[in-house]
Amino acid sequence: DAGASGGATVTREDKVKQIVDEIMEKLPEEFNMVEIMNKVEERTPYVIVAFQECERMNYLTSEMKRSLKELDLGLKGELTITSDMEVLENSLFLDQVPPVWTQRAYPSMLGLNSWFIDLCLRLRELETWSTDFVLPSCVWLAGFFNPQSLLTAIMQSTARRNELPLDKMCLQCDVTKKQKEDFTTAPREGAYVHGIFMEGARWDVQQGIIMESRLKELYPPMPVINIRAITQDKQDLRNMYECPLYKTRTRGPTYVWTFNLKTKDKPGKWTLAGVALLLQP
Questions:
Q1: pTM check: above 0.85
Q2: Class in CATH terms, 140-278
Q3: Rounded-to-integer distance, Cα 193 and Cα 191, Å
Q4: Which of 97, 24, 29 has its CA nearest to residue 65?
């Protein structure tokens, strides 16, 4: 068949080999944990979050490199192709994230190409953060393996600073009217976070409340949210919808936290509409 079609066709192996080379070329060196840990004098809750994220990223990228090198040798005929290598080759060919990577990664519904672009963005955020460990002026919450850890760190650092018991703290979410480009410094308390989308409704920036979504706007992005810790007795739950935050559209096991958002309508309306916040639409 190949002979008849004029020899200019790209074989399956060639295509997979090309993908392997591309990914290998773009994957950076792993984070040098010893060096990173020696940079820091005081291990604040945020610094520990950064350490954990770097370690998780190493765990994922090292497996990606290992499996790709192995497959590369298999394609060259220097190693016998195993069933694991076949699964990897199939996934790469079909633009799917290979199962061995998914096990070590964060929940995602993207195809391989978009997933890898997303991974590179996460790596860049971490590289920036781990150079000086200053909390970014606006944090990309979706870029974390474990977004809960950052939210918990916000409560821990406020509790420590004000000498309050951690179990009496909760999170207050103030939705700003700005986008991430408008911020150059981190807030005095808590963190600014961006990269959150809403499903089932939209956020009205002018009125600062949840509104019904517009046609064809499936996942309208939220403005930057200032998340800070307050004591539970200061929490005002009037006219609030307890909005769950999930990592992906699958919801369920990807639950992260519940944010209280202002509403003029009864909260039940949004519960019935299944309104939620997502880190990845």
A1: yes
A2: alpha beta
A3: 6
A4: 24
